[in-house]
Design goal:
The chain is α/β, with parallel strands linked by helices and about 375 residues long. It contains 13 helices and 16 strands. The strands form four sheets. It has a six-stranded parallel β-sheet, with helices on both faces. Strands 5-4-1-6-7 form a five-stranded parallel β-sheet, sandwiched between helices. Helix 7 packs across helix 8 and helix 10 packs across helix 11.
Length: about 375
């Protein structure tokens, strides 16, 4: 795949540069709960300022505002304040949440032109939004010379290496809620990987497809047929949980116990992989040279049900292997485990990560290649 030109090659001295960053951070009561994405934007911004840019305009979406009432909740102000604390420079200007403009998600040409107005160069550094053809990710490239930021470039380099020449044994780990929207990714990984470990809601779907009792657990019924097909295709290369933690209710204080598939109470739900499965998964990755992980293995947001996910995170951190973490909840899990810095790469994109793995064209990247 042809790679876009890098911002490191661009002459920015004296120019006004528009940067599409990924500043979509989690907020709690109006305060930033995790500034990882803001910190991730710094290298590109620092490079532009160090190379003499006259002004750097940063734009990003924040949350999913749907009504005028959402504007106060998702205003960019706390993000701007944190960015200025990390990077005080009068040449930095932070634009308001792009999704406050109706034309953003519609890739409206007028809004794209408005963003580009007065700028000399566009830099896309938002890999997490590169799978969206929005005005700030795709439309603006029709009005300005466009290059890739350092963060976006790093994501593409890592994933391109993974797709072209992964070291074997190659182990893929898939969790999260659904399989129906990841069918293409699973097919791709089964073609590439030596083993596929499955847990979380996706594990429930595979277990049900294999004829196991899963009670009232989260199951993606639309993905059952695909799961059956994958099990028939891959056989024992797909490793399913052999035990689980089941809870009477989906609450952190709910009564729970360790069960095998034969012992699963029909009205309970699976909330985590069990200790035998943790050991099974540890054994399955022990000799790995490449590991890709997307999706938690249980309801890790609730502390009693995070043990399996966190145990696997610590296991991967100790491997002599390339370990690539696929964004979103999985990135949050390795952060929670305190081992994000020990992974080879923690992607900033969930949907973009999966679509790139699948081999689909990302509009935000394709626009840079064509610019």
């Amino acid at each position: 795949m042809r790679m876009p030109r890098s911002v490191s090659e661009a002459d920015v001295a004296g120019k006004t540069v528009l940067v599409r960053a990924d500043l979509n951070v989690p907020l709690e009561d109006g305060h930033i709960a995790d500034d990882t994405r803001i910190r991730g934007s710094l290298p590109t911004l620092e490079l532009l300022l160090a190379n003499g840019a006259a002004e750097v305009r940063v734009c990003s979406h924040l949350g999913r505002p749907k009504t005028e009432e959402d504007h106060a909740k998702y205003a960019i102000a706390p993000v701007e304040q944190r960015l200025r604390e990390l990077l005080p420079d009068a040449r930095l200007r932070v634009l308001e949440n792009t999704r406050f403009a109706p034309g953003e998600t519609k890739n409206d040409e007028d809004f794209a032109r408005e963003l580009a107005d007065g700028c000399d160069l566009y830099v896309n550094d938002a890999f997490g939004s590169a799978h969206r053809a929005h005005a700030s990710t795709e439309g603006v490239t029709h009005h300005l010379p466009a290059v890739a930021g350092l963060l976006l470039q790093r994501e593409l380099d890592v994933l391109q290496d993974l797709l072209s020449e992964p070291a074997h044994p190659f182990v893929a780990i898939m969790g999260g809620a659904k399989i129906s929207d990841k069918i293409g990714v699973v097919e791709k990984l089964l073609d590439m990987a030596d083993r596929l470990l499955v847990g979380g809601g996706m594990g429930n779907t595979f277990a049900k497809a294999a004829g196991q009792e899963v009670g009232e657990s989260l199951v993606d019924d639309d993905g059952l047929e695909a799961a059956r097909r994958f099990l028939e295709k891959a056989g024992d290369r797909i490793v399913l949980p052999v035990d689980a933690i089941a809870a009477e209710h989906l609450r952190a204080d709910a009564y729970n116990l360790q069960v095998t598939p034969d012992e699963m109470p029909p009205e309970w739900r699976i909330v985590d992989i069990g200790p035998r499965t943790v050991e099974l998964f540890r054994a399955a990755v022990r000799d790995a040279r490449t590991v890709v992980w997307n999706g938690p293995l249980g309801v890790f947001e609730m502390e009693p049900f995070a043990k399996g996910t966190l145990a696997l995170a610590h296991t991967l951190a100790g491997l002599d292997a390339v370990t690539i973490i696929g964004g979103g909840d999985t990135a949050a899990a390795v952060q929670q485990a305190g081992v994000a810095g020990k992974m080879t790469h923690v992607s900033t994109g969930g949907g973009a990560f999966l679509e790139y793995l699948e081999g689909r064209e990302l509009p935000g990247v394709a626009a840079l290649q064509d610019a």
